[in-house]
């Protein structure tokens, strides 16, 4: 599959360059970033978390570079090719690709082939970048993504967006070469010219691959239809997948209200749930998920945006309990873990989604010392003063472990982070950052860094 992706990227690149010989509708851009860090033991949480897998707790230095070509096929269609890579210490391997993809877009469809970051920097203050399943905590997954390029009108003030994608988990994991099916659908209601309600769901499922214990997992077309609709597996599936749903399913309901004021305050209010099985789909685990509010005062530059998020994953539909025959259970949703796909919802040993679910990788997948029951209060602020832009994050976190391995008393943390950026015209952007993590049972982690970014 990786060879297929590379072949497609190469073919699209040759096609784009050939076209560019005849027309001048091609734009090139690129950039380089370099950072250096010092810490007493390891980097603080928000220094390396949600950095697209580029930094680790033990990183001391990083260099990142990208090149991008944007070719306009017509006034309404274009092809974009981007390649980027990163070199740093503290992570093995030290040199990796970051993004490598080709994107075709016209007025109605958007197709990406390769490895493209699922979320961008739009919601940098959020603990999950406003996506509980894909929080930008790992490198981009290789795959293909198909979505509509603009909302599809259903009625005058009502539209719909949708995405379907296929990814490959090609890292070192308990079950090799796992497929990931992903889809979402969102409905947009323009209540007034200044207020919008958006609601929908996203669904991901791990399936196929080769297990060292159970061999080849079902991966035919009929198995894909079961994955798509979340139905039980056939005779070639594990007993649990026959009784419940084939594969490892996760998903999220989402609702968001936005209010835009020309002269006053813009604000967003949102909620994203998290479900792993039928009990979560039926919201028996409510109120688990991310609850947030973002406020942007128009009259202030010192404080451009405030964000508060309350995050909890403690309900999980209650402790595990049998509810009927045939081995079915209710409760104990055990987020981001699975009995067959023991590496869970991770990529290269990192949680793909909500980063407060901190996994401990092992040869058997995820170790018993993992944590997926947490309560967090997260604050983010951004603004400008003098010629500086700044970002501030502050999190209070309580970890309860899991139902099987609880942490008593609760393990509490305070994560703090501050970053200042100085843009200099025609030269680049200089930055400095500092952070500290506090915990009663361990030494305080301090870290600081300086950086430089140049783009053209």
Structural description of this entry:
With 456 residues, the chain is mostly beta strands. It has a single domain, classed as Capsule assembly protein Wzi (Porin, Beta Barrel). The strands form 5 sheets. It has an 18-stranded antiparallel β-barrel. It is globular and about 60 Å long. The two termini are 33 Å apart. This is Capsule assembly protein Wzi.
Topology record:
Elements: H1 2-20, E1 26-39, H2 45-48, E2 61-74, E3 77-88, E4 95-105, E5 110-115, E6 142-147, E7 152-155, E8 158-169, E9 178-190, E10 195-207, E11 210-211, E12 215-216, H3 221-229, H4 239-243, E13 248-259, E14 265-272, H5 278-281, E15 289-297, E16 305-312, E17 321-322, E18 329-330, E19 346-347, E20 350-351, E21 361-362, E22 365-366, E23 374-385, E24 388-401, E25 406-424, E26 428-438, E27 445-455
Antiparallel strand pairs: 1-2, 1-27, 2-3, 3-4, 4-5, 5-6, 6-8, 7-8, 8-9, 9-10, 10-13, 11-12, 13-14, 14-15, 15-16, 16-23, 17-18, 19-20, 21-22, 23-24, 24-25, 25-26, 26-27
Radius of gyration, CA atoms, in whole angstroms:
23 Å
How many separate domains?
1
CATH superfamily: Capsule assembly protein Wzi
What's the CATH architecture? Beta Barrel
Strand content: over 45%
Structural class: mainly beta
Mean pLDDT: 90
Number of helices: 5
Protein name: Capsule assembly protein Wzi
Organism: Dokdonia pacifica
Pfam families: Caps_assemb_Wzi
Index terms:
456 residues, mainly beta, Porin, 18-stranded antiparallel beta barrel, 49% strand, disordered N terminus, Wzi_sf, Capsule assembly protein Wzi, Caps_assemb_Wzi
